[in-house]
Design brief:
Blueprint: H1 12-22, E1 27-31, E2 37-41, H2 42-58, E3 66-70, H3 75-86, E4 90-93, H4 100-110, E5 114-117, H5 122-128, E6 137-140, E7 155-157, H6 158-162, E8 179-185, E9 193-198, H7 199-209, E10 222-225, H8 237-244, E11 247-250, H9 257-266, E12 271-274, H10 276-289, E13 298-301, H11 308-317, E14 321-327, E15 334-337, H12 349-357, E16 367-371, E17 386-391, E18 414-422, E19 428-433, E20 438-440, E21 443-445, H13 447-454, E22 460-470, E23 474-483, H14 491-498, E24 510-513, H15 527-533
Parallel strand pairs: 1-11, 3-4, 3-5, 4-8, 5-6, 6-7, 10-11, 10-12, 12-13, 13-14, 23-24
Antiparallel strand pairs: 1-2, 8-9, 14-15, 16-17, 17-18, 18-19, 20-21, 22-23
Helix pairs in contact: 1-2, 1-8, 2-3, 7-8, 9-10
The chain binds adenosine monophosphate.
């Protein structure tokens, strides 16, 4: 017997309808690419997103067509995002940090018919437009006064184009499993693969994000997503904030410490989310300028491991709580978030920081477990390592056009490619990417843990650990360090600092100094490049 409840498809357009009806005056504040701060409301966004949908229909865009955006977090990006998804087309967010050949590849692979381009990225498309045969028009996301002098073909001015439609438009209704968004993973090998979100997965993921123990957004929050809309859905915030009626503050192109501080301070931001690099810049600025963060309640840090020293700085110096989060493009992206449980409140500060350094617990709708090489589940004891596998309604079941073949096992688990522990309370800790883990004497060494501790040394700006071949132990760790400006720590100093903080047999056999550590388009350490660079490095005799 079926239930007798209404058939109310979980469509992304319903999120924006909800915000416009229940929070019409709530603000969206943008630092525009042109410079000035712009303010409008959910009511305005609702109107302009429907206008966008109507304009797209006038241009011949239909259900299932792919429309690309290459843009910062700003109000116009939100209009395109909701306009495209709301009318049933697919919003393909392009990460401008990909190599031009990769951008060309993904736009052709997705068969995008229009590309919405922020002013900053016009040169990227000037270089590759001739190789994008399916693109009918490049919509420059600005007004007539700011249109650049460009040789880009088929250029359209966003504001002029949008003004050709009005907002007299009703969102269509269709199956909630219809595709809504597309984001390519930026793997270190092979071509990027397309992750195709549905309306249903996006709406369920917004509800997941708004759970009190996850992002926990509400109508009194002011949220600043520094995490970009072009990478993994801005960690659900572009959906979760309107669903909760939270004020949204969009940083546009400026992510330096001073610019982020200004927005936090002037807009009364209560919650923000970013990768560790952004927070490092902000903490540096606060320290230099002697500034405080009295209104900020908590920051969510993820994308790569958040070092304990960062959690300590936020919590003890600035009274801002840190919640470490983990996820991936294939998970929409939120997988875990590290809020404490009541029983942890009485723990010492250092124990709390150690627990908060783990990547956190799974919210409802994320299932996860760790398995060995044969797929046997490993104990949830916080000690056993294993391949982290996940399931859930906002987790990919395959990539666009079947690239990469079958990605789930027989029971529907997706292998994240991460290696982790899970403890009895459900807190997961990433120890490595499976391909980066060091195997020494048959045991695994966590490179992330060593890196996390090394960056606590006052002379270390960034650290990366890689495994080098070793005749006796198979592999041994090499610690690669970028020294902080104005300091010149010695390798010996740094190793002495690690002593007692990691197992003896994890101690790196050597320390190498570099000016810069290479990063991927999504800000992760490019260990493949480091392994190539240091392949002939001789570890000292042990
Ligand atoms: P992406 O799909 O580009 O978002 O990358 C996802 C990958 O980033 C994950 O599989 C992890 O390897 C890594 N990652 C994300 N968040 C964290 C975190 N908090 N700590 C360590 N690694 C992370």
């Amino acid at each position: 017997m079926l239930g007798l409840m209404q058939d109310w498809p979980l469509l992304v357009s319903k999120i924006l309808d909800h915000a416009a009806i229940n929070h019409p005056e709530q603000e969206i504040v943008t630092r525009t690419t042109e410079g000035p701060i712009q303010r409008y409301t959910y009511k305005d966004l609702h109107s302009r997103a429907r206008q966008m949908a109507k304009r797209l229909e006038m241009a011949g865009v239909k259900l299932g067509d792919r429309i690309a955006t290459c843009a910062w977090n700003n109000a116009r990006h939100m209009e395109v995002w909701y306009g495209v998804m709301g009318m049933g087309a697919i919003c393909h967010t392009v990460n401008p940090r990909l190599f031009p050949e990769q951008i060309e590849y993904i736009i052709n692979h997705a068969e995008d018919s229009y590309v919405f381009v922020d002013l900053t990225f016009v040169p990227v498309f000037e270089a590759i437009a001739k190789d994008l045969p399916k693109v009918k028009g490049f919509v420059i996301m600005t007004d007539a006064a700011h249109m650049p002098d460009t040789k880009l073909r088929d250029v359209i001015c966003y504001e002029d184009w949008l003004a050709e439609a009005d907002d007299d438009y009703t969102w269509p209704t269709f199956d909630e499993n219809t595709a809504a968004g597309l984001c390519y993973t930026s793997g270190t090998t092979g071509n990027p693969k397309g992750v195709l979100y549905s309306h249903r997965s996006n709406v369920l993921h917004a509800l997941l994000a708004n759970q009190a123990d996850t992002l926990g957004l509400c109508a009194s929050d002011v949220i600043l997503p520094v995490v970009p809309m072009f990478h993994a859905n801005a960690w659900a915030i572009a959906f979760g904030a309107p669903a909760a009626g939270a004020k949204l503050v969009m940083p546009g192109p400026k992510m330096d410490g001073e610019s982020i501080y200004q927005l936090l301070h002037e807009e009364g931001v209560t919650v923000s989310a970013a990768v560790p690099t952004v927070w490092l810049m902000l903490l540096g600025y606060l320290e230099d300028q002697g500034k405080e963060l009295p209104l900020l309640n908590y920051v969510v840090i993820g994308g790569s491991a958040c070092p304990p020293s960062m959690i300590e700085a936020f919590e003890t110096k600035y009274g801002v709580q840190v919640f470490h989060a983990w996820g991936m493009t294939e998970m929409s992206p939120i997988g875990t978030l590290g809020r404490l449980k009541p029983k942890h409140e009485s723990m010492s500060l250092s124990d709390q920081i150690a627990l908060k350094s783990k990547q956190g617990r799974a919210p409802f709708t994320v299932e996860m477990k760790i398995v060995d090489d044969e797929g046997n589940e490993q104990p949830r004891d916080g000690v056993a390592f294993g391949h982290l596998v996940v399931r859930g309604p906002a987790v990919s079941k395959s990539y666009l056009k079947g690239e990469g073949g079958e990605i789930l096992d027989a029971d529907g688990w997706f292998d994240t490619g991460d290696v982790a522990t899970i403890d009895a309370d459900g807190y997961m800790q990433i120890t490595d990417r499976a391909k980066d883990v060091i195997k020494s004497g048959g045991e695994w060494i966590s490179t992330i843990e060593i890196e996390n501790i090394a960056v606590g040394h006052p002379g270390v700006a960034e650290a990366a650990v890689i495994g080098l071949p070793h005749p006796k132990w198979d592999e041994r760790p090499l610690l690669i360090v970028v020294a902080k400006d104005g300091t010149s720590p010695s390798g010996k100093d740094i190793l002495a600092y690690l002593e007692g903080k990691i197992a003896k047999w994890w101690m790196p056999n050597d320390v190498a100094f570099v000016d810069e550590i290479p990063h991927t388009a999504t800000g992760k350490i490019q260990k493949m490049d480091l392994r190539a660079k240091f392949k002939d490095h001789q570890l000292p005799n042990d």
